[in-house]
Specification:
The protein has 233 residues and is α/β, with parallel strands linked by helices. It is 28% helix and 27% strand. α4 (75-82) links the parallel β1 (65-69) and β2.
Length: 233
């Protein structure tokens, strides 16, 4: 496991991710933190994130340990903490995005005014498939990550392993495979085909619209949201 992690880190230095660029950070700041940008508030992506939070609200309790896989700039992690989660963890492969999350927590980003003091949020740089976690989670989200994973099947399996028995996972995907590192035979048009129904119970499903800022333009995505519960260990 440690060797795989080191190899991944070495490859990242050789081939820097587009998620390490300033432009990508800016895109995610507008998408996730738009309403809280002091000078020029943006609302183009807010409906998308608000709907995810409303869905998560059904499953997060005061004793919940929650995880957001591919947390980007961390908005959902803070929202889950606001919902009362006992611990809220965000993980992302981008060091630039994780660094921003930590600065938001410490209120070191002057252009963002977020009316909340975070006490239990934790941010981790790494590939969730390769990271060992001490505890299991009662709720996790994985938003627009399936089509960015090298192996979507392994990602789903890892999420299964990270959940407690009876735990709930919320997955969202626009099925935008154009920039996916996954081989074509692993591309899917319906993520429900990735879930072994002997282990998972599908408990919710709907479609969301996401207006994602890309440079000076926006791109409209139709995103598939599926909520599943772990029913077999």
């Amino acid at each position: 496991m440690k060797l795989l992690s080191k190899l991944g880190s070495f490859r990242k230095r050789l081939f820097p991710s587009r998620y390490e660029t300033g432009s990508m950070l800016k895109n995610y700041v507008i998408a996730q933190w738009g309403p809280f940008i002091v000078d020029h508030p943006e609302y183009i992506s807010e409906d998308f994130y608000s709907e995810i939070v409303e869905e998560a609200k059904k499953y997060i309790r005061a004793d919940s340990n929650v995880l957001d896989v591919g947390c980007a700039t961390g908005r959902l992690v803070f929202e889950y903490e606001k919902l009362g989660a006992r611990s809220a963890v965000g993980i992302d492969t981008s060091s630039k995005l994780i660094d921003f999350c930590k600065k938001i927590k410490e209120k070191q980003v002057q252009k963002i005014s977020y009316p909340f003091d975070s006490r239990v949020s934790i941010f981790i740089e790494g590939d969730v498939v390769l990271v060992d976690f001490k505890d299991k989670f009662s709720f996790l989200s994985c938003v627009n990550v399936i089509d960015r994973a090298e192996n979507p099947i392994l990602l789903i399996r890892k999420c299964f392993d990270l959940l407690k028995m009876g735990g709930v996972a919320l997955f969202v995907s626009p099925y935008d495979w154009d920039f996916s590192p996954a081989p074509k035979h692993l591309h899917v048009s319906d993520m429900k085909n990735l879930f072994d129904l002997r282990r998972w119970e599908i408990i919710g499903e709907k479609w969301l619209s996401l207006n994602m800022p890309i440079e000076k333009e926006t791109k409209l995505y139709d995103c598939h949201l599926v909520v599943v519960r772990k029913i077999f260990s």
